[in-house]
Amino acid sequence: MTVRPIALWPDPVLARRADPVGRVDDGVRALAADMLETMYAAPGRGLAAPQVGVSRRLFVMDVAWKTGDPDPIVCIDPEIVETGGDLLLNEEGCLSIPGILVPVRRPGRIVLRWTDLKGARVEAEMTGFAAICAQHEYDHLDGIVTFARADPTLRADLESAYAEATR
User: Fold this and answer.
1) Active site (annotated) includes residue 91
2) Fewest CB atoms within 10 Å of the CB: 14, 125, 126, 130?
3) Is 5 within a domain?
4) What is the pLDDT of residues 8-23, one digit of tens each?
5) Helix (H) or strand (E) holding 138
6) 58-61/121-127 β-pairing
7) Which is the catalytic residue, given 82, 123, 137, 164?
8) What are φ and ψ of residue 100, in 5° steps?
9) How many domains are there within the chain?
10) pLDDT per residue as tens digits for the range 64-120
11) Contact at 8 Å (CB) between 87 and 108?
12) Tens of pLDDT along 22-74?
């Protein structure tokens, strides 16, 4: 396993829709292992393949490891098949936009379907922070970063703060 460099906004890989993974092979499993290693080292709770420069529809997440035992999930070619529940407002951080928190409203419940590392299709309901995390990582697969979820005035302020912090 290798800790990979994380692409920082405005890297173009973060702005394009990622390609499907398709067949799960040793290369995909190695990428997922590297992504988990990178996520834990960062330290984050989620990481999408475009964030490590790979424009493929794959993300990893582990919302439990900072407060309990690791419980990683690898989502290959995921689909959000249902959303619901109250809209939750959360200040979201992003490993590709370090130091900036963006207030984002997202559904508090989703049903996510994905392929696992064995090639099986999995479907699970996620609520609360797990639902928020999965939606955040899913956005990366569509070329969407948290700045795009902010209202235009706030977005401009946040982008200025990020530019200032990265000078």
Assistant:
1) no
2) 125
3) no
4) 999 999 999 999 999 9
5) helix 128-141
6) unpaired
7) 137
8) -115, 130
9) 1
10) 988 889 999 999 999 999 999 999 999 999 999 999 999 999 999 999 999 999 999
11) yes
12) 999 999 999 999 999 999 999 999 999 999 999 999 999 999 988 889 999 99
Largest Cα–Cα distance of the chain, in whole Å? Answer: 45
Q: State the DSSP code for 152.
A: H
Task: State the residue range of the domain holding 83.
Answer: 12-160
Spatial CB neighbours of 1, under 8 Å, sequence gap ≥ 6: 33, 34, 36, 37
CA 142 to chain centre: 10
Is residue 7 a part of any domain in this protein?
no
Q: What is the CATH number of the domain that holds 59?
A: 3.90.45.10
The closest of 60, 68, 15, 8 to 38, measured between CA atoms, is 60
In a domain, 106, yes or no: yes
**Is residue 31 in some structural domain?**
yes
The Cα 126–Cα 13 span in angstroms is: 27
Among 147, 157, 154, 150, CA closest to 9: 147
